Amino acid sequence: MRQFQQTFFAESAEGLEVMESGLLDLQPEALDPETINAIFRAAHSIKGGAGTFGFDPISTFTHVVETLLDELRAGTRQADAALIDLLLQSVDALRSMFDDAQAERPIDLAAHAATQQALEQALHAESGPATPADSDAEAKSPAVGWAIDFRPHPELFTTGNDPLHVLRELASMGRLEATVHADAVSDLAVIEPTQCYLRWELVLRGDVDETTVREAFAWIEDECDLTITALEAEADEPAEAAVSAPVAVAQDNLQSSAAAPAANQAARPAAGGGGSIRVAVDKIDSLINLVGELVITQSMLHQASLDMDPMHHEKLIAGLELLARNTRDIQEAVMSTRMVAIDSVFKRFPRVLRDVAGRLGKQVELETEGEGTELDRGVTEKIVDPLTHIIRNSVDHGIESPERRVAAGKPETGRITLRAAHEGGYIVIEVIDDGAGLNRERILDKAKASGIAVSDDMPDTEVWQLLFAPGFSTAEAVTDLSGRGVGMDVVKRNIVGLGGQVTLSSEAGKGTRVEIRLPLTLAILDGMLVGVGDEIYVIPLNFVSESLRPEAANIKTIAGSSQVVRVREQYIPIVSLRQLFAVPGGQNTLTDSVLVVTEADGRRVALQVDSLLGHQQVVIKNLEEHYRHVFGVSGATILGDGRVSLILDAAELSCVHDQDQAA
Length: 663
Known about the structure:
This protein folds into five domains: 2-137, Four Helix Bundle (Hemerythrin (Met), subunit A) (Up-down Bundle), CATH 1.20.120.160; 143-255, Alpha-Beta Plaits; 281-338; 341-519, Histidine kinase-like ATPase, C-terminal domain (Heat Shock Protein 90, 2-Layer Sandwich); 524-662, CATH 2.40.50.180. The protein is built from 20 helices and 23 strands. The strands form five sheets. A six-stranded mixed β-sheet has the order 15-19-20-18-17-16. Strands 4-1-3-2-5 form a five-stranded mixed β-sheet. Helix 2 (33-52) runs antiparallel to helix 3, helix 11 (349-360) packs parallel to helix 12 and helix 12 packs antiparallel against helix 16. The radius of gyration is 32 Å and the shape is flat. Mean pLDDT is 80; it is low at 129-142, 234-257 and 259-274.
């Protein structure tokens, strides 16, 4: 059952996201029936699945939630902000229970007893009158009975569902009569065991309303075609074609043909059509790694073909060119399997915003743009925490209180915009607020008090970078939201660790903008190849500002040995890669070398190399997994000639000059 449990966990996580996003969208004064139904169906599916797999504490807890949602859906209970907050707390509790279940820890309802008690109190409290919007969702009046046409989709069995579970639930409501048909089957030899070919004609007799009948199908509503029709009073007697339970199978459509030739196997219907399948992430990662090896092998073959005579090896060279195109297509196709829409990240933040703004007594709305922008799954998993901290900061430090906003001529409700877009091989994520903006003088005063060397004539861009200093905070007091000096430095470290950059810009009284630039994938990067002696290094292109051959007049020596180069009135420290990595051979003079200027963590450094060899996409290999951490190196790759090339860590190299100065 373990493989089915994993599917259940994944689907339940999606269900909890549906519940959370739906609850956040609810407006107590005008409930949307479709949203309520979506939330209810998600809770109903979670409860049913938890019971099936033996997670009774989850099923018990969710039953109370489901009952409250059912009353909202039926219009017998009025929603208010307190009830929605309580239901959101129940989503948090369920997530915690699922974490325990997946980790195979005992699920202890006692840990969430306060939430469950509050839910039960709300359930037994007197319900308010239905709101006008609820009238559309009111239950249909009971009928004499119901005629039900139940047609499961072919892939119903592959999702682990059992249609007989529905029949048993219907049978508990009244007298159930059923006829089952096998449709569109002409040859037993071509039947797929995992496909569902059955269709049920059901008659349910009893004093039960349509809403209750539909609830029995709620957990497979999207996996079947369903028609429910009220029976007229005169249709009290069973139809002749109906067969009472136990269910009988109409076999008139089945023709036995066990001796059909094997060629008939090709006529099997496609399973799932244009649907989707769940694949473990580690399998995708393994496939990506194999494709990376294929790319390297193809590059090596291409390198070897450069020495061939095109006249004598025309077919071989043409074949290698075709291999290169096919390899590139395979690489792009496989990489796309790890690409997910950033909406999976964005939809977490309405809840964050609601909670933080509520605790601070502020009114804030979230606007999102570019939710369909795709990036690597590995990046999405690691960008959630930095974005969460940035948005919390925007609400806490950026957005003013309603009174201050009105006094400043602004609307009471502040706005935070979360935007994503592709730029070349990168994704740019922006968090923009319309708050008070950053206070330059206050930041400088805090920096001076913290012992950070600053000057009053520093440009704004450098002043804003002070916010990323470890332990730096402008909060007046320590709270559970801010003031401990832990946060923005971690945000920057995490983003740089992903090969990205983060910048700040602000305008007093108008707001602040945080821009994060990240590579689309962590498996491949665009790099600049540079030569140092017989070695070739890769510098990530997103950290490269420019390259130049310096003039002697622009080179200065400081502190006896350290050298800097003047680039547009700014002096930049020079780091020799030959000396840093002890590359054999004599050092070229600076005027005979090339300087590659990189920028990371707000620091610029000029890397001294012998030559520029071009730009190339490279497959990243983790050096620490196979060897150990090497200062100034973030990974390795294999070039077309089979040589290993180190990928430089621009952030660490930007600190070399400071270490030399300290020494």
